[in-house]
């Protein structure tokens, strides 16, 4: 997982990365996603509540907001994203 703040099509913060997500329960993955967003905002000096959107990419098959298959993060199968 990698997270960074993008503003006007440019990277506005350092990229934060995390390894070992395969061993985490789905709720902890969501918590890590949130923490990386917070860290990216702090690094750029931006308040989280001023962010207009957050994009997340997940490998696998996602239909109608449900993870049908995620070969790299099997614990996300069935999760509503």
Q: Any overview of this molecule?
A:
By secondary structure, the protein is of the alpha+beta class. It has a domain at about 1-55. Helices cover about 25% and strands about 20% of the residues. It has one helix at about 25-45; strands at about 1-5, 5, 10, 15, 60-65, 65-70. The strands form 3 sheets. It has a two-stranded antiparallel ribbon with strand order 1-4. Strands 2-3 form a two-stranded antiparallel sheet. Strand 2 and strand 3 (about 10) form a beta hairpin. The longest helix has 19 residues, at about 25-45. It is globular. The mean pLDDT is about 85.
Short description:
23% of the residues lie in helices and 19% in strands. With 81 residues, it is α+β, with helices and mostly antiparallel strands.
Q: Name the structural class.
A: alpha+beta
Question: Which band does the percent of strand residues land in?
Answer: 15-25%
Instruction: State the share of residues found in helices, binned by percent.
Output: 10-25%
What is the straight-line distance between the termini? 16 Å
Any idea what the shape is?
Answer: globular
Query: Helices and strands, in N-to-C order?
Result: EEEEHEE
Overall number of strands = 6
Q: What's the rounded overall pLDDT mean?
A: 85
Instruction: Give the strand order, joined by hyphens, for the main sheet.
Output: 1-4
| Total of DSSP H or I helical runs spanning 4+ residues | 1
Q: List the uncertain runs.
A: none
